[in-house]
Design goal:
Oligomer: heterodimer
CATH topology of one domain in chain B: FAD/NAD(P)-binding domain
Strand content of chain B: 15-25%
Shape of chain B: globular
CATH architecture of one domain in chain B: 3-Layer(bba) Sandwich
Structural class of chain A: mainly alpha
Largest sheet of chain B: 8 strands, mixed
Largest sheet of chain A: 2 strands, antiparallel
Helix content of chain B: 10-25%
Strand content of chain A: 5-15%
Shape of chain A: globular
Order of helices and strands of chain A: EEEEHHHHHHHH
Radius of gyration of chain A: 19 Å
Strand order of the largest sheet of chain A: 1-4
CATH class of one domain in chain B: Alpha Beta
Number of strands of chain B: 24
Number of helices of chain B: 12
Distance between the termini of chain A: 21 Å
Largest interface: A-B, 68 and 63 residues
Structural class of chain B: alpha/beta
Number of domains of chain A: 1
Helix content of chain A: 25-40%
Distance between the termini of chain B: 37 Å
């Protein structure tokens, strides 16, 4: 049996970080306090640390607010890769695999899992590099399918519903002032004209009043 | 192959078209109707927990799974095709309701002259049509289809404002459209901020803005079939989602509630139709694989093919029914006149926040000053135009993040980008266009020689590319986008004109891909007659967007259902009384 591997999310509290919302008003971003030890489904702990470090350069924690590390983006990516999406259950994967024009998109055989495994390996000692060196390394792979996926998944992990493993403590939605899914804007749609509607965010589970799971949990 | 007991009518496809036909036939005749649907059963209450951008808008949870079946594409007959491995420039649906569950509910009518486009363009331009243009007349005029448009608008409860009511021009509606016999069944929606700014700017420029007609109800409504639905809540989870309250007209909320009560209606899900079985020029029935993988023949007196556009042509080709179109000789009909739509968008940035997460499928304002009969007259070389609109359809937070004005960041990742992305988030909108796509001889459908579906049958192969004409249409319309953006005092992010350099399968354009089994005036020029009856196998009907000789501007669902109702009337009122070819 495969040894269980874990990633530890940041322990530092973000309770004191002052941010400015789209409304131009200062808010405090609230995140879970205390370290959370989360079991990995696909990555090894070493791989997860590299992916986390890379996502942190794509969407950094900096003066404009918290980033991919605090939002647990690596957990989101781990779950996506462990599920049917990572195994290409939703992509046409019959051969022959032929290179074509850019208008035909990615035509390769490798699944998202394969692309990550190889991409991480090529990043080597990435987790030990300085931020500037990390940026330089990422710039050198900007045109690869691995980087395109990594960038897309980082944004997904920041702003998708927390049921998918990212957007921890709704950090992503707090950053952009998104209230989360709401049943109705009947009374607001024609009133908030150029005025920001920024309610305290809640995820789908809170709205539905019951646990919800993403497609990645579906057994294939 | 297991052979079942024969039924009166068998229908391939449980989407808008198939279920509309089933509704009409089961209500007006005692005939037994069996609908075969490849996907799962669905109902409004399934959509209670689908407010998730990742799974639904980005991973396409409601769509046909391309791993099982997709299409291949090539830009010309000289090139070899490759599979569309993931979506995609269009999104085929699956499951009960088909793409009618996840559609955007925008409900335009086509312009009167569009139905006689070949005649119209010949009269206007003589022999000066560009090389390869293969537009055809539909075989009926706007006056004949108008009552059917009205029936569909009532069934769905479309909201909007007439701009041409019984030949009276009414400001505030689309004054360029064909004459309507009635005002819309429902009023326009409440409008959010961005479309209002667009409307004001368009009016200042002398254009004629109107609220976009949409089938997401603007108020509670009971249709003539007695089906009641609530008004839209503007939750923003609309296009690519099923509506959890049933405000958006979907087959599961306007057709299934009626059909479920009818004893002469049977719906079989998980049934993948593979062939139209035919003998001596007549359709015998449909063969399909059921959910357990068993091959079954359902014989029927009348066979209706009502699957998604591309699958209608594919079924005819796989069944060897009719002569495949050959673009070199121009002979044959099956697969000809494949069209998409000319989509262009100009990104704009406004100073104030938009709350763009609020919205509904077709919520917004449009202009049609550069569409219809005379809209392109000032633009030499442009034969047909398109609408221009600004909609708040419910912006996804993932998809819209990182859209920033040009020059705000050197990279599309890292601190500088993040800061700019946060600053501009919820300030971006798009002025967009859907223009008519002319039919060309070179754009067609056939079967791929290499790639197969999960059953081993050849995939549909699309040969499709843009020409100078579409680029001229795009240039005309994006020039107007820029004028409006300027009048809106918006910062422009530029237009996506590159999309028209070569047909691009990786970028969503619309699911409005049509043609392939077109209607027309003769068996030499079309697959079905103007009532959508197959020219040769007269007990076979091929119904859907596949019948469009070329594509109109605006969204095609209303027109697809109008020709569906017209086919139903012809079948029920005429064919059943005197079986044979209609004329």
């Amino acid at each position: 049996m495969k040894r269980r591997e874990f990633i530890t999310l940041p322990a530092k509290s973000l309770g004191g970080v002052l941010l400015y919302t789209l409304a131009g008003e200062p808010i405090r971003v609230h995140a879970q306090t205390g370290a959370a030890r989360i079991p990995l489904r696909f990555f090894t702990a070493a791989e997860a640390r590299i992916v986390e470090a890379a996502c942190d350069r794509i969407f950094p924690s900096d003066e404009s607010g918290p980033g991919a590390k605090e939002a647990g983006v690596v957990v989101f990516i781990d779950r996506q890769l462990a599920g049917p999406y990572g195994k290409d259950k939703y992509r046409y994967t019959k051969p022959p695999f032929v290179d074509s024009v850019p208008e035909h998109g990615y035509q390769g055989k490798a699944t998202p899992r394969d692309i990550y495994r190889e991409g991480i390996q090529n990043l080597g000692n990435f987790a030990e590099l300085s931020p500037a060196e990390r940026d330089q390394r990422l710039r050198s792979i900007e045109n690869t399918q691995f980087f395109r996926l990594l960038r897309q998944h980082t944004i997904e992990g920041m702003f998708s519903d927390p049921m998918h493993g990212g957007n921890a403590g709704l950090i992503g939605w707090q950053l952009i002032g998104y209230p989360g899914p709401l049943m109705s804007y009947r009374d607001e749609i024609d009133k908030f004209h150029g005025i920001p509607f920024r309610r305290k965010p809640a995820g789908l589970a809170q709205l539905a009043g019951r646990p919800v799971t993403g497609w990645e949990e579906e057994k294939d | 192959m297991q052979q079942l007991k024969s039924v009166d009518v068998v229908i391939a496809g449980g989407g808008f078209v198939g279920l509309t036909l089933a509704k009409e036939i089961t209500a007006r005749t005692g005939l037994s109707v069996v609908v075969l649907e490849r996907g799962r059963p669905r109902k409004t209450s399934d959509y209670g927990a689908d407010m998730d951008e990742l799974d639904y808008a980005l991973r396409y949870r409601m769509m046909q799974n391309p791993a099982e079946e997709t299409a291949t594409h090539r830009h010309s007959s000289r090139a070899s095709a490759v599979p569309i491995r993931q979506y995609g420039s269009f999104n085929p649906g699956t499951g009960v309701g088909g793409a009618g569950e996840h559609w955007g509910a925008i409900s335009y009518r086509f312009y009167p002259e569009h139905f006689k486009l070949a005649t119209f363009l010949r009269e206007k331009h003589g022999s000066r049509l560009p090389e390869g243009v293969a537009v055809q007349d539909w075989g009926f005029g706007y006056d004949e289809i108008e009552p059917y448009y009205w029936r569909v608008e009532q069934m769905m409860g479309v909201g909007g404002k007439a701009g041409n009511l019984q030949n009276r021009r009414i400001d505030g509606g689309n004054v360029f459209e064909g004459s309507r016999s009635h005002e819309y069944p429902n009023p326009p929606h409440k409008m959010p901020y961005a479309p209002i700014v667009f409307e004001t700017a368009a009016r200042e420029l002398g254009y004629h803005p109107y609220p976009i007609p949409t089938a997401t109800l603007s108020r509670a409504y009971t249709n003539p079939d007695g089906v009641s639905r609530p008004g839209c809540a503007y939750c923003g989870f609309c296009s690519r989602y099923g509506c959890m309250i049933g405000a958006k007209a979907q087959p599961t909320n306007i057709l299934m509630p009626l059909l479920q009560k009818r004893k002469n209606f049977t719906l079989r899900t998980g049934c993948n139709v593979r062939r139209i079985v035919h003998k001596d020029g007549r359709a015998v029935g449909l063969s399909y694989f059921d959910a357990s993988g068993q091959e079954i023949l359902q014989p029927a007196d009348i066979v209706i093919v009502a699957s998604w556009t591309l699958n209608n042509s594919r079924l005819l080709l796989l069944s060897k029914l009719g002569e495949p179109f050959d673009p070199t000789t121009g002979k044959g009909t099956v697969g000809k006149n494949l069209t998409h739509q000319v989509n262009q968008a100009t990104r704009i940035f406004l100073d104030k926040p938009l709350n763009a997460f609020m919205g509904a499928g077709g919520l917004g304002m449009g202009i049609s000053d550069f569409d219809g009969k005379e809209g392109v007259d000032a633009f030499p070389g442009v034969l047909r135009g398109g609408n221009i609109r600004l909609m708040s359809t419910g912006e996804g937070q993932i998809a819209s993040f990182g859209v920033i004005p040009p020059g705000e960041a050197k990279s599309d990742w890292g601190s500088e980008w993040k800061k700019a992305a946060l600053k501009w988030h919820d300030h971006a909108a798009a002025i967009s266009t859907e223009a008519e796509h002319l039919a060309y001889r070179q754009n067609h459908i056939d079967l791929d020689p290499t790639y197969t579906d999960k059953f081993g049958d050849p995939l549909t192969r699309l040969t499709l590319d843009w020409t100078e004409h579409e680029r001229a249409q795009g240039a005309m319309l994006t020039q107007i986008h820029a004028k409006i953006a300027n009048a809106m005092n918006a910062k422009s992010g530029g237009a996506n004109s590159r999309l028209l350099e070569r047909y691009t399968v990786t970028q969503y354009q619309s699911t409005h891909i049509n043609g392939g089994a077109i209607m027309g005036g003769s068996p030499e020029s079309s697959v079905v007659n103007p009532w959508l009856q197959h020219w040769q196998a007269q007990n076979l009907w091929v119904v859907g967007g596949s019948a469009f000789p070329q594509n109109g501007s605006g969204n095609p669902t209303l027109t697809i259902l109008a020709i569906t109702f017209r086919a139903a009337d012809a079948l029920i009122d005429r064919y059943l009384k005197h079986p044979g070819g209609l004329a």
